[in-house]
Amino acid sequence: MPDDFLIARNTDEGSSLPYVLRVPLGEGIILKARDTWPRTGKVYCHRVEEWPDEAEIVERVPVRSCVRRGAAIDLVLDRGRENRSQIVITNARGRQMIFWQTARTAKQARPAVSVPGARASGVDDLEVVVDSHERYPYTFADRQVATRRAALAAGDYGLVVDDVLRASVERKSLDDLVSSLTSGKLRFQLTDLSAVPRAAVVVEERYSQIFKLERVRPSTVADLIAECQVRFPTVPIVFCETRKLAQEWTYRFLAAARVALAEEAIGESAVARLEPAAPLEEAPPTPAEVRRWARSEGIEVSAKGRIPAAVVEQFRQARQRTTS
To answer: DSSP of 239-265, one letter per residue?
Structure first.
């Protein structure tokens, strides 16, 4: 095979990794991969022995250099952008793992921040429902979270109580956000999310990356985001720096929503147990009201001073007849 970098569709329907890569190192290294390029985060890969028969080629790019350096392979493609990457072989959880990354995604994987291990809102038994259409869902590893798959009416991750979706989060990579904005799909998603009591969209990227887009005008994307926020003010669009931080934000949002839901239930129960208040006594009539009524009835009263009690009683009786 020529020394090109190849990307093809994985013909193994049972695999969760939809692409196959051929890296031109030695006689060629073949990997299954989760994506066609590490744009927003590291791409998980897995070694395979043979190139699939009749593989549909997605991309074929000439290679400037492909060099192994220790446990990593530096790959430089012969094109203007998305050309430098690295394939890293490491061990995690007692087994070999392979990740495909760029300098940017490697830096994003290590934002200068440590995620706290404290339970979100003190919740230790949170259940998150993951939409059945979510292909590569958050695992909420190292968090006291139970997950289950089910179809959600809105969003990718939800808090379901008594079979009702109470809170939901829609996850977006930057590419997905741009695509759904320009196609109009996001407005339909926001319409569904706005029907949920608590909902949000979380983006696995910095807001500043919008202004580095090349295939679409950055100002157009920024305007569309602003328009969506104005039209759907109850569904915030939150930009998180990395996928890991977006997962953390989702976890804490849903935990806070569950606490708020419990507080509302307590409040409703407490109000329901309150004794009903005694009915308010009828407010005494003002002198001005009595004088206006007396004049309309032809009863003479003084313009100033105390109104006779008999006239006031007549006014009350007339008002009772009118309201009864």
So the answer is: EESSHHHHHHHHHHHHHHHHHHHHHHH
Q: What is the pLDDT of residues 81-115, one digit of tens each?
A: 899 999 988 876 667 788 999 987 766 655 556 66
Cβ neighbours of residue 9 under 8 Å, at least 6 residues apart?
18, 19, 20, 55, 56, 58
Phi, psi values for residue 315, rounded to 5°: -60, -45
**Dihedral (C-alpha) 152, 157, 160, 164: value to the nearest 10 degrees?**
-40
Structure tokens at 210: 């919008």
**Higher model confidence: residue 145 or residue 105?**
145
Residue 137 has pLDDT above 50, yes or no: yes
Helices 309-323 and 287-297: crossing angle in degrees, nearest 10, is 80
Looking at 11-15, 195-199, 223-227, which range is the least confident one? 11-15
Q: Mind giving me the DSSP string for 59-98? A: EEEEEEEEEEETTEEEEEESSSSS-EEEEEEEEETTEEEE
